[in-house]
């Protein structure tokens, strides 16, 4: 029987969606059909990624188009 104990630190990324002023927006409502711009700030990651994947439901959004492909 091995009764050694192990401790692990698992880093968890912190993700925030911010508005045009850079302030976190937990809830925000927009008029249907409005164009919005979202900025995602990701911190506390061990290895930063070169991109972020945005999805609407199961569909991946395209950040190269004016409406993201929606």
UniProtKB/TrEMBL annotation:
GO BP annotations, alphabetical order: synapse organization
Source superkingdom: Eukaryota
InterPro entries assigned to the protein according to its UniProt record, in alphabetical order: Ig-like_dom (IPR007110), Ig-like_dom_sf (IPR036179), Zig-8 (IPR037448)
PROSITE patterns given in the database record: IG_LIKE
Residues of the Ig-like domain: 13-70
A single cellular component GO annotation: neuron projection membrane
Name of the protein described by the UniProt record: Ig-like domain-containing protein
Species in which this protein is naturally found: Coptotermes formosanus (Formosan subterranean termite)
